Protein backbone atom coordinates (compact mmCIF):
# COMPACT_ATOMS: atom_id res chain seq x y z
CA UNK A 1 0.00 0.00 0.00
CA UNK A 2 1.62 3.20 -1.16
CA UNK A 3 0.24 6.67 -1.74
CA UNK A 4 1.45 8.74 -4.65
CA UNK A 5 1.66 12.46 -4.01
CA UNK A 6 2.64 15.19 -6.43
CA UNK A 7 5.35 17.63 -5.42
CA UNK A 8 5.69 21.22 -6.62
CA UNK A 9 7.55 20.24 -9.78
CA UNK A 10 4.71 17.92 -10.80
CA UNK A 11 6.59 14.66 -10.26
CA UNK A 12 5.18 12.05 -7.93
CA UNK A 13 6.63 10.92 -4.62
CA UNK A 14 5.71 7.48 -3.36
CA UNK A 15 4.60 7.70 0.28
CA UNK A 16 4.60 4.58 2.42
CA UNK A 17 2.23 4.09 5.35
CA UNK A 18 3.75 3.73 8.78
CA UNK A 19 2.62 3.91 12.37
CA UNK A 20 4.04 6.60 14.68
CA UNK A 21 5.86 3.85 16.61
CA UNK A 22 7.48 2.58 13.41
CA UNK A 23 8.59 6.09 12.46
CA UNK A 24 10.03 6.65 15.94
CA UNK A 25 12.06 3.42 15.70
CA UNK A 26 13.53 4.55 12.36
CA UNK A 27 14.29 8.03 13.74
CA UNK A 28 15.95 6.51 16.84
CA UNK A 29 18.11 4.26 14.68
CA UNK A 30 19.10 7.22 12.48
CA UNK A 31 19.97 9.32 15.53
CA UNK A 32 22.10 6.47 16.94
CA UNK A 33 23.97 6.02 13.67
CA UNK A 34 24.70 9.74 13.33
CA UNK A 35 25.61 10.49 16.94
CA UNK A 36 27.27 7.27 18.11
CA UNK A 37 28.08 4.74 15.39
CA UNK A 38 29.45 7.20 12.82
CA UNK A 39 31.85 8.95 15.25
CA UNK A 40 32.96 5.57 16.64
CA UNK A 41 33.84 4.22 13.20
CA UNK A 42 35.73 7.43 12.35
CA UNK A 43 37.80 6.95 15.50
CA UNK A 44 38.39 3.29 14.55
CA UNK A 45 39.61 4.30 11.09
CA UNK A 46 41.97 6.89 12.57
CA UNK A 47 43.31 4.31 15.03
CA UNK A 48 43.84 1.73 12.28
CA UNK A 49 45.63 4.31 10.11
CA UNK A 50 48.03 5.03 12.92
CA UNK A 51 49.22 1.40 12.75
CA UNK A 52 50.94 2.00 9.45
CA UNK A 53 50.67 0.08 6.16
CA UNK A 54 47.01 0.20 5.09
CA UNK A 55 47.39 -2.43 2.34
CA UNK A 56 47.63 -5.26 4.89
CA UNK A 57 45.65 -3.70 7.72
CA UNK A 58 42.58 -5.85 8.49
CA UNK A 59 41.40 -3.42 11.19
CA UNK A 60 41.37 -0.59 8.67
CA UNK A 61 39.49 -2.68 6.09
CA UNK A 62 36.90 -3.74 8.70
CA UNK A 63 36.42 -0.15 9.87
CA UNK A 64 35.99 1.07 6.29
CA UNK A 65 33.45 -1.69 5.61
CA UNK A 66 31.55 -0.69 8.75
CA UNK A 67 31.66 2.96 7.68
CA UNK A 68 30.26 2.03 4.28
CA UNK A 69 27.41 0.10 5.91
CA UNK A 70 26.61 3.00 8.28
CA UNK A 71 26.57 5.59 5.51
CA UNK A 72 24.35 3.40 3.33
CA UNK A 73 21.94 2.78 6.20
CA UNK A 74 21.83 6.52 7.03
CA UNK A 75 20.82 7.28 3.43
CA UNK A 76 18.21 4.50 3.48
CA UNK A 77 16.72 5.69 6.79
CA UNK A 78 16.60 9.31 5.63
CA UNK A 79 14.73 8.22 2.50
CA UNK A 80 12.29 6.04 4.47
CA UNK A 81 11.60 8.82 6.96
CA UNK A 82 11.08 11.42 4.24
CA UNK A 83 8.51 9.26 2.44
CA UNK A 84 6.65 8.04 5.54
CA UNK A 85 2.95 8.75 5.78
CA UNK A 86 2.14 8.36 9.46
CA UNK A 87 -1.22 6.78 10.14
CA UNK A 88 -2.53 6.73 13.71
CA UNK A 89 -4.59 3.54 14.15
CA UNK A 90 -6.25 4.95 17.30
CA UNK A 91 -8.13 7.44 15.10
CA UNK A 92 -9.71 4.58 13.13
CA UNK A 93 -12.61 2.37 14.13
CA UNK A 94 -15.00 -0.24 12.83
CA UNK A 95 -15.07 -3.93 12.05
CA UNK A 96 -13.36 -3.67 8.65
CA UNK A 97 -9.65 -4.50 8.45
CA UNK A 98 -7.40 -1.69 7.23
CA UNK A 99 -3.86 -0.47 7.82
CA UNK A 100 -3.03 -0.28 11.53
CA UNK A 101 -5.68 -2.77 12.62
CA UNK A 102 -4.94 -5.39 15.23
CA UNK A 103 -6.74 -8.48 13.99
CA UNK A 104 -7.61 -11.58 15.99
CA UNK A 105 -7.91 -14.69 13.78
CA UNK A 106 -8.68 -18.35 14.16
CA UNK A 107 -7.24 -20.99 11.84
CA UNK A 108 -10.35 -22.82 10.63
CA UNK A 109 -8.46 -26.13 10.34
CA UNK A 110 -6.62 -26.18 13.69
CA UNK A 111 -8.78 -23.77 15.76
CA UNK A 112 -5.54 -22.02 16.78
CA UNK A 113 -6.08 -18.33 17.51
CA UNK A 114 -3.54 -15.64 16.69
CA UNK A 115 -3.38 -11.86 16.72
CA UNK A 116 -1.47 -9.56 14.36
CA UNK A 117 -1.19 -5.84 13.77
CA UNK A 118 -0.94 -4.70 10.16
CA UNK A 119 1.91 -2.19 9.85
CA UNK A 120 4.23 -0.67 7.26
CA UNK A 121 6.78 -2.68 5.34
CA UNK A 122 9.78 -1.38 7.30
CA UNK A 123 8.29 -1.87 10.76
CA UNK A 124 7.10 -5.47 10.44
CA UNK A 125 8.38 -7.83 13.14
CA UNK A 126 6.81 -11.27 13.36
CA UNK A 127 8.16 -11.79 16.90
CA UNK A 128 6.15 -8.73 17.96
CA UNK A 129 3.12 -9.97 15.95
CA UNK A 130 3.39 -7.03 13.49
CA UNK A 131 2.98 -8.03 9.85
CA UNK A 132 3.72 -5.97 6.77
CA UNK A 133 0.80 -4.51 4.87
CA UNK A 134 2.33 -6.17 1.79
CA UNK A 135 2.44 -9.69 3.32
CA UNK A 136 0.10 -12.34 1.88
CA UNK A 137 -1.88 -12.53 5.13
CA UNK A 138 -2.35 -8.75 5.37
CA UNK A 139 -3.30 -8.54 1.69
CA UNK A 140 -5.96 -11.19 2.27
CA UNK A 141 -7.29 -9.40 5.38
CA UNK A 142 -7.46 -5.81 4.11
CA UNK A 143 -11.04 -4.80 3.37
CA UNK A 144 -12.59 -7.80 5.12
CA UNK A 145 -14.96 -7.63 8.11
CA UNK A 146 -15.33 -9.46 11.42
CA UNK A 147 -16.83 -12.88 10.70
CA UNK A 148 -15.36 -13.13 7.20
CA UNK A 149 -13.15 -16.06 6.19
CA UNK A 150 -9.99 -15.45 4.20
CA UNK A 151 -7.80 -17.88 2.32
CA UNK A 152 -4.07 -17.26 2.43
CA UNK A 153 -1.49 -19.01 0.24
CA UNK A 154 1.09 -20.85 2.37
CA UNK A 155 4.00 -23.18 1.56
CA UNK A 156 2.04 -26.25 2.74
CA UNK A 157 -1.12 -25.19 0.92
CA UNK A 158 -3.72 -22.51 1.43
CA UNK A 159 -4.76 -21.70 5.02
CA UNK A 160 -8.21 -20.40 5.87
CA UNK A 161 -8.77 -18.01 8.76
CA UNK A 162 -11.88 -16.46 10.25
CA UNK A 163 -11.65 -12.88 11.49
CA UNK A 164 -12.78 -12.85 15.13
CA UNK A 165 -12.04 -9.29 16.14
CA UNK A 166 -10.67 -6.03 14.73
CA UNK A 167 -9.26 -3.40 17.10
CA UNK A 168 -7.65 -0.04 16.42
CA UNK A 169 -5.33 1.12 19.19
Keywords for this structure?
elongated, Chitinase A, domain 3, 2 domains, 3 helices, 169 residues, disordered N terminus, 8 strands, alpha/beta, Helix Hairpins, five-stranded mixed β-sheet, three-stranded mixed β-sheet
Structural account:
- α1 runs antiparallel to α2 (58-82).
- A hairpin with a 5-residue loop joins β1 (3-6) and β2.
- The model is unreliable at 1-8 (pLDDT under 50).
- With 169 residues, this protein is α/β, with parallel strands linked by helices.
- A five-stranded mixed beta sheet has the order 6-5-4-8-7. A three-stranded mixed beta sheet has the order 1-2-3.
- Helix content is 36%, strand content 25%.
- It contains three helices and eight strands, in the order ββααββββαββ.
- The protein has helices at residues 20-49, 58-82, 136-141; strands spanning 3-6, 12-18, 84-86, 102-107, 113-119, 130-132, 149-152, 159-167.
- The chain folds into two domains: 20-86, Helix Hairpins (Orthogonal Bundle), CATH 1.10.287; 89-167, Transcription elongation factor, GreA/GreB, C-terminal domain (Chitinase A, domain 3, Roll), CATH 3.10.50.
- The relative contact order is 0.15.
- Belongs to the GreA/GreB family.
